Amino acid sequence: MTLEACIDGGSRRNPGPSGFGVYLPGLVSVAEYLGHKANNFAENSALVSALRFAADRECKQLKIYSDSELVVKQIKGIYTVRNESIRPLSEWAKDLIARLPRFSIEHVRREFNRVADKLANEAMDLKGNLMRWESTDPTSSQPGLFQP
Prior knowledge:
Elements: E1 2-11, E2 16-24, E3 28-37, H1 39-56, E4 61-66, H2 69-75, H3 87-98, E5 102-107, H4 114-126, E6 130-133
Helix pairs in contact: 1-3
């Protein structure tokens, strides 16, 4: 199974009320409220959530799209994770990536990540979590997620 996922995290008044969104086109939309956290914590939490979804389903290939250049460069090893509160999330993400036969992560402009951004804001607005299944077949995937 091949999956694509758009991820985004946010924090109001960094740190402040925070949440993340994960959008897997044709499959599921997830929004999770994290409480009082920093933006980078929320961005990394979104990454871990998408990776857990893929790894739990024994996905063969996962492609992540994120508008956080910092998270993308940290996962690619270009930047070092210096923040002690982020390091466990980053290590967890790397462990999950190791379970996937093929993985890639790509930085995209914010306008190409609107659905994940909307989900993150929904979580912050509701101060709660939600999951919407878009398909009754959890093994299906629909390409072409970028349509601004």
